[in-house]
Design brief:
- By secondary structure, the chain is α+β, with helices and mostly antiparallel strands.
- The chain is built from two helices and nine strands, in the order αβββββββαββ.
- The chain has a single domain (44-155), classed as Immunoglobulin-like, CATH 2.60.40.
- Helix content is 19%, strand content 34%.
- The protein has a four-stranded antiparallel β-sheet, with no helix packed on it.
Length: 156
Amino acid sequence: MAMQKRTVIVALSIAAMMMVASVLAIMTSSKTIPSSGSINAFKVGVYSNAGCTTPLDSITFDTISPGYNTNKTVFIRNDATSGGKSMSLSMTVTNWGSTPPNGSTVVYIAFNSTGVTLAPTISCAANITLTALDNDETKAGLSFTDIDINIFGTEV
């Protein structure tokens, strides 16, 4: 008997919830509002020329001897349009492809513009420096391929 009462109460509760949901569904109305606009892109542009008209797709470093370095100058622009946000620059290096494979421990890549702040449409020159340590590993010779230099702009 108690089981039948519980079953009846559960069934009535479910029916009541379904009726409320049906009434709410009937009472729902919607309106579509057309819209348009644009998103002010926050992005880093890296270029090979000071006018920032030639995007830089890759860097080929000169051959260097152990204990020496070579620099490449790149031009970095905050490619956000006016009204965008300022950004602070930084760099990381990933995907060290070298022969022998321990190249990332004997060769370093540095970036002299870490912390530089660029307002929208403003650019700066930056040096990326490849340095080889003077040790037995570098004297044996190294070859690099597929090193990814990642330049970041962080909103400030």
